[in-house]
Amino acid sequence: MLLARCKVAGRCLILSAIAEQKETQTTLPKIGSFDGLSGCIDDLLTAKRNANRRERYVKSLGYYLRQFAKGREQTAISDFTFSHVEDWISRYPAAVTRQTWLNRISTLFAFAVRRGLIVANPCDRIERVTVDPKPPLILTPGQSRALLAATPTVMKPYVVLGMFAGIRPEEITRLDWSQINLDAGKVTVEGKTRRRRLVTLEPVALAALRKHPLQRGAVAPCNSTVDRWRVKARRVLGLNRWPQDLLRHTAASYLLALHQDAAKVALRLGNSEKILMSHYYAPVNGDCGLFWNLAS
Question: Model's pTM, two decimal places?
Answer without folding.
Answer: 0.67
